[in-house]
Amino acid sequence: MDLKQLRQFVAVAQSGSFLNASTMIGLAQPPLSVSIRKLEQELGVTLFDRHPRGVVLTQAGQEMLAYAQDIVTRAANLRKLMAEISSGARAPLSMGFVGSATFSLLPRLMQAFQRLHPLVEVSLSEMTTQKAIAAISDGQLDVGIVRVPLLEPAPIDILPVENDHLVLMVPPGHPLPANCVARLEDLSGEPFVMYDRSMVPNLRAVAVLACQTAGFVPHVTQEAVQVCSVMSLVESGFGLALIPHKVARRMRTRARFQEVTSGGTLIGIGLALATLADGATLATRRFRDVAMTLDEEEYEEAPTIGS
């Protein structure tokens, strides 16, 4: 007894005749009849009562049908599962992301990817850029959404997926004029809330370099890891801070945000997709392909920063 015979048995039982079954499965009637007869001989029972107009299941045939259908269905499902695994449709994907990616990029990217590849099992972990780069380099993570620019070279590929810039967050009641573009050059005497030097070195380096370009080393009163924590400290009055624009415009706070320049230009940052330079999995390559086709978000009308 093999799977082919079970499929043939189910076809005959469902169609009610050898003739109809032979058409259904694409096998001539004589070899189909021989195959079923051999199955009956092997099992030692008669599965069908044969009549001129067709066949009827015997008691043994009725008992066998449910089992045969279950085996045939399971075999079909198994074949489909193996095909999905072979094609990468069910391949797992591990991804790390910086917290600020959740404000815009991560939801849009995941929705686009899951529409195209709904069977891929994605595991998500929030982490700093530094940890994501290390995990990808060590093979512990497939892909990361990280802050750029990066400080040090690493054996990874970087695909920029979201451009952004830093804006100035000003505590409630601060005398700095609003409704204008601030100049970092005018803020050398101000206290700053800064990103943690060990946990968020990239974003901190960009902020500190912007201050140095403006001609001063910032006086740091407090440090924090998460952007939301930095913003809370600013709202509490500990100082100014430089915040990603796409995060700032989604926040409700008593503090205010306004555009700021250093050396006459905006302070550019962004988010990028980080993957292994070599040896990326099929799921990773597909995720990267989706990211390459993702358009920059078109925001709904919102108050301009500084207004």
TrEMBL record:
InterPro entries: LysR_HTH_N, LysR_subst-bd, WH-like_DNA-bd_sf, WH_DNA-bd_sf. The keyword DNA-binding applies. One of its GO terms (cellular component) is protein-DNA complex. CDD domains: PBP2_LTTR_aromatics_like (cd08414). Residues 1-58 form the HTH lysR-type domain. The keyword Ubl conjugation does not apply. GO terms for molecular function: DNA binding; DNA-binding transcription factor activity. Keywords: DNA-binding, Transcription, Transcription regulation. PANTHER family: HTH-TYPE TRANSCRIPTIONAL REGULATOR CYNR, TRANSCRIPTIONAL DUAL REGULATOR HCAR-RELATED. Belongs to the LysR transcriptional regulatory family. This is HTH lysR-type domain-containing protein. It comes from Tardibacter chloracetimidivorans. The lineage of its organism: Bacteria, Pseudomonadati, Pseudomonadota, Alphaproteobacteria, Sphingomonadales.
